[in-house]
Amino acid sequence: MRKQLRSDLDERERRLRAMVARYKAKPSAIDSSLDVDDITLNVEATVEEIYHIMTSRVCSDDNPLQLNANLKEAFEAQEDEFGEFYLSAMTAIEAYKEVLNNYNLLKGDALPRPGRGDLPKIKDDVHVLIDERIACIKAIAEFHGKYAAMLAVLRAH
Amino acid sequence: MNDHHAKVIIFPAREGGSWGSTPGESLRDAVEEFSELERCLLQLAPQRSWSAQRWMIASTPFRMLLIGASKRLKDLRDTNPADGQTTMSWAFELNDACLETERCLNDIDVCLDMLQRPDASFAERAREIEMFASSRSMLLKALGRIRYLTTRDFTAELGENLGDLHQ
Description:
By secondary structure, chain A is mostly helical. Chain A has five helices and no strands.
């Protein structure tokens, strides 16, 4: 059980790290990761999964990782901060999904062709989308950073 | 200093404490724990542009190890010479080094608290980074002193593992 849990934690860390690296290289790559059914490719599901494992399995009373008293205390002391990073990532994902959905509706085929003078408005819309996307990737990267830092301590013991 | 050679420290028995089962294991565990703390501290390469979140992430391993290290320090300070088998001066030296380490850890903790505040101004942040660097340097010295004191005289008694850590 202990070995399986460690393996689960490592696998999620590698998965999220790869996702973040891909989004940093090409930010628009996140768009397709938000509505995909495959849980291993869906960034929102991966973040949720990590939070669930950390709160319900690592920091649980039965101590499945057999952490010594100091390490257990250290993990418990980080729970609130980890929760804040999680909340921040999930909020940013939710906001970006909403903006992306509406942006896609705006670009729908049913709309008439843009006319003269419409470009500044289009530019504004694109910038809103890009800003939200960057904020979303940043929040996910920070959540990953926090998770990886906690895992590094676990790996050393 | 050389008069401490080949002396034996009798460690107080602890129930449920963090000492290992033998003095050798206990000292080795303490030295290992401090070494890991040092490693985390050395890996921190702060920059003025770091946000509060960046500080939270970068200092996570250090802050997590702080809990165990503080307890180890307290245990070390409670290590009193017994049966006249060691010198008082060694115990005083160790106690001083532990107190200095605790003071530095506290200073770093205060700096980190400030640096993790999102509302800290750029000037406050810059000042705290300088304080952090200074406290870190003093902490590394104090930890080195503890390592020296706990390994120097007892390497022979405690086996090669402890000797390796001294390097």
